[in-house]
Amino acid sequence: MLDLTSEAALIVVSNRLPISLRRGRDSLVVERSAGGLVAALDPALRRTGGTWIGWPGMRLRESEKLPSVDEAYTITPVPMNDNEVRRYYHGLSNGALWPLFHSFPERTRFDRRDWEIYESVNERFAQVTADELTRNCLVWIHDYHLMRVGPHLRRRCPNQRIAFFLHIPFPSYDIYRTLPWYREVLIGLMACDQVGFHCPGYVRNFLDCAERLLGARVDRDKNLVQFGARTVRADAFPLGIDYEGHERRARSAPHSARRDSHKVILGVDRLDYTKGIPGRIRAFERLLEVYPEHRERAVLIQVAVPSRGQVAEYQALKREIDELVGRVNGRFATSEWSPIRYLYRSVSPERLASLYRDADVALVTPLRDGMNLVAKEFVASQTEDPGVLVLSRMAGAAESMHEALMVNPYNIDGVANSLHQALTMDFQDRANRMRALQRRERRHDLHAWLEGFLSAASGPAAQMRPTALQDFDLWLSPYLRSDLQLALFLDYDGTLTPIVSHPSQAVLDDETRELIQRCGARSDTDVSIVSGRKLDDVRSLVRLPGITYAGNHGLEIVGPGIESFSHEDVPHYQKRIASLAQELEHICIEGAWVEEKGASLTLHLRALSHLDQRSLDSRARELILEAGFQVREAHCALEARPPIGWDKGHAVLYVLRERYGPAWSENVRTIYAGDDRTDEDAFRVLSGLGVSFRIGNTDTPTQATRQLPDVESVKTLLRWLASRPEAPQG
Question: Residue 295 sits in a domain of what CATH number?
């Protein structure tokens, strides 16, 4: 278990720092930022020590340095230029992820250049974080701006404990999959040990997407996701507020001189299309139409805090709200009464406390919201005559604040009716509802959220049960028909044997050999081994007759019932590959070596440090390309292949066509298992035509149908295939 009491044990990574900067006359002026995230994490960092990493909100000049602001913990800035702010923050984060995750796909803007900058900025955050790491620390990444930090940090620090919390909703499968980079974003979260969401519903959406879009194995009872060899825990941690602070502020806030003259309905929001402000105003207008007794007796105070005013969409929203307020006031106002008081500005914490405390109704009607702390702040501030909370079902807070009057914000008549109910509710009903809400929010406050998440994130690593026969029964039984033949394709290194430091150590164990033999002995199953090794090499390692062997990524193929194959262009490249091998050996450093395979070669880099790998990789790519070969990436290795348009995918198609004819897809079921990027060629050609398994970890998207953690799970697959009922003959 991670000890969070030691110095520098917590590293917080968020888009913004807990401070904001502005240029004064002579120097930078530092101001402490407000907001729930700062209120929650600042005390934790002060207690444990550590670092807060984020963007300072402005571009520092060469002569400027971040002022020293606090000695309790370190503040480390991540620089960004104007183009990066435009594309990473305004573009991908708020132009694509924000509307999509709030279930507004029609408002999204997808731009490849935004994604590329988002990826590069996330990598920079990872590098800055890696530079700050100390022993026995927890890295806690926050929110949708930084969903790709995990893989970049994991690559630099494989054993680092990493946690992530998403402060907005996680959408359903049907909405999420419209994101062009849905695999990359999910894989970003799979690099973390603990992932947190506000609500169980968001956890269910995440698990569903991980299973359906990544082929990950999911345990919904324990909220675990197995992605390759990694297990990720996903849980709900509803964010609370500083309850005592809001309550204390409400008790001391000044009273309004006109507090008893009207019933007050209060709305407090950042100006954003997700908050449902236009619908709220229409519902209040409908209230005055249907229930005229509230005219001249009720007012709607709507606070709209300016946000993203430079964005045209938000400018249009402000115009719409301005027009709605003008229309309602124009219809119903009298010389003594104006139905809507619209405050387009920020208000001080003291003024907001007064508004909360003195309001008779809080109207919280977002169209979609990750949590919504306004509802909780209103409840904590009800220190006198209790008011009523009218709450949208689309807010995350609705999953726990059951005593509120729940509404559908799209149902204008329904909201108006609930407003009438709230305005006419008797004291005892109001008191009972409010006291129950207050007890819960006091118990599940900001500090409880913080302690709950840190306890889970610093606990023992999650472990999922081993892959079992029943898993394959669930995945494959609907696919494998008893009257059709099965074509089983298996990679060798990393699939049938574990990845080892040298290929000569990758020896097939007796149990795996027996399972392959049992599969091949079935009348309804044909087995093929497809490897990047030389043909003679892979045959001598497997040593089983009656199965098909494809070596050199399919450039050489032999097997029963098919014509032996050797690509016609192979002889042309054999001499050139020998020359390239010599050039690569000349630049090799200790720990790197070249494996020549006749028509191709592999430069092995596994024994090198990450820095040495990057240095040698760059020079080797140049030599491979100069020699006229293709560069392909493998596990800590580079492949040099002839540019003849042939790979494992072509090899699989060759075997299928030769053995089963041109209409093979109608007469055979196909399964492929592989662990490497070179196997992606086979996954790609079998997409929609077969079932494929990617073995082990990968921080890049895969075309495979499903992920398996290790070689042991492949044995379980072979055991299931060998023991399944065989179709009767004749």
Answer: 3.40.50.2000
